[in-house]
């Protein structure tokens, strides 16, 4: 195999994983970030966030000399002719649109330092049209005699499965400005291992590649909100959304995945991506095409309100002075990411409504504390359960799914549990004397 040299710019959840996994594939990789603390940690083989399996990959490849980190763009420019751009594109303050300042900054800081022929592969999720705009910027900023090609290579990794999703992706998508570009040739070398094992390789124009990413996330968000909308109806008529999802999921045109009814989606991608997609469609004059995403967003947020209502009802109509235990703070299990987390959102709302809220999450505590310093944070599940008047399961960590209801009953003050993720074995909890309620089901 032809091993390549490359940089990965931006070392957050996406970039750090991409850098480590490209080294794992045998390439020579330099990770770049302006955040000195992050780079210092990574240099010392410490992943600055929780991602199962990533620390091992990082350590192994640093030790093998295939992976290094820097804050210097001069070093990055001299290191390789292939660069991956994986910086964040968060939601703009006061708007639905994506904030592209970090993406622009990379082009502005890197391109003037480049010499010769370079390819920059964008991996960040961006509004359609951004790659063409970056190509224009790069053309203007490139020194005399330097040629920079911008291509788009969206990333589909899920937090919690990031290593697997990067090393064995279910597809590779590449958008290029023309057919048969250098970018395509380079991408075939970079991804030689997954391509050799038959991973589908979809080559498109730039704008299609950009749209593939947001469309995938918009579809997933829509699927979750679909089942959560049905869940609202189930609650009114006493139907069971879990059995319903099983039943429709057997139709392989529908499929059971992402029909998990409950507190809905959060995280650093789905919520901001559907909003940025709507904003971009509006700018393009196609706002009507995506107005349904407003509903997808609204359904998702309503589930959080519903959970607060259920908790209030469990406390006899008033949360004031009641002890509420929220199990989970991360937006999903196997992650420490609390960005737009449904769990933390309801913990905050319950606290603002007067409840004494105690939170426990196996990995998300440090991040949760930064966002909501005023909540009580327990040291363990047991610690969190002690004295509770109602327990809310908000993130479906394995540890919470497997909680022994008999033991849990011995710790709380009142045996009431609200399953926000529809994962608890209902019969076992009932047998242990619990009053169990869940979103979308009358139990
Ligand atoms: C998502 C996409 O899956 C990934 O392809 C993309 O690259 C980034 O965004 P991620 O944000 O890591 O990945 O999480 P994902 O596993 O997709 O879950 C998103 C949210 O949906 C979580 O809050 C999860 O709890 C929720 N969810 C998921 C449900 O509420 N019900 C489900 O059935 C599935």
TrEMBL record:
* Family annotation (Pfam families): UDPG_MGDP_dh (PF00984), UDPG_MGDP_dh_C (PF03720), UDPG_MGDP_dh_N (PF03721)
Q: Is Oxidoreductase found in the keyword set? A: yes
Q: Which residues form a coiled coil?
A: none
Protein origin, superkingdom = Bacteria
Q: Write down the chemical reaction(s) this protein catalyses.
A: UDP-alpha-D-glucose + 2 NAD(+) + H2O = UDP-alpha-D-glucuronate + 2 NADH + 3 H(+)
Can you tell me which residues bind NAD(+)? Answer: 33, 38, 89, 125, 159, 272, 339
* GO terms, biological process: polysaccharide biosynthetic process; UDP-glucuronate biosynthetic process
Pathway membership: Nucleotide-sugar biosynthesis; UDP-alpha-D-glucuronate biosynthesis; UDP-alpha-D-glucuronate from UDP-alpha-D-glucose: step 1/1
Record-given protein name: UDP-glucose 6-dehydrogenase
Recorded source organism is Corynebacterium kalinowskii
